[in-house]
Give the backbone structure.
Amino acid sequence: MRIIHVTDTHLVAPGNLLFGIDPMQRLEAVLRKIEADFSDADLCVISGDLADAGEPDAYQMLRDRLETFPVATRLLIGNHDDRENFRSAFPEAMTDNNGFIQGFDDLEGTRLIYLDTLEPGAIQGRLCDKRLSWLKRTLDGAADKRVVIFTHYPFVSVGLPHCEKILLSNPIDVMPLLHAHDGVRHIFCGHVHVATAGQWEGIPFTISAGTCHHIVPDFVNDDARFVAMTPQFDVATITDEKFLIHRIEAQDPPVLAIMPGV
């Protein structure tokens, strides 16, 4: 099974720029790369901050583009998104019984869980009691499956001072649920705009830097310096024997030489 992870598209209304760059143009480069090299993927997950200001026109632009995208796609929302505007543009998106934009797919023995961590008006994400109950039921229903989590907000520290106060506000409620399942293989996140990987309490996680602007990693200062590196995404290959993640840039760099295969 092959899963594409894209995040932090930060789309703005057509004709507008964000920090002097065109977020749609940068997303387009990623989608074209996927179409060229990974069109056989089983699924693409875009994990939030779809629109920089939650504008209806930005969501409509995304919808229009995805209509011709050959890979089935699941959409999450992040702190920059507007839940109602998103739902208006994507009424068919997965929604739980309480109206949160979350759901799951079962593919090849794996339950892929998509979380809605948006807490409107707050700088931190949150899984409220209703969302925690939903997550517990969804994990309980996957007792015989491995589990992969997709979330906009990282759950625990990522080692960057400017991020420490804008992560999920209640990991103490979430992590025990993941440990209770004993089959959570990976957590995919966005939000940070810095490519990061590691483990939280023994569970591996990967954060993609995203398609729009990026942040220079700074292990000392609270300030975030925005830059525009090459848009990127992750490709996960998941089987019973292996769990591989490759980071792909939207534009290929110049080839310096070719080493013949052996």
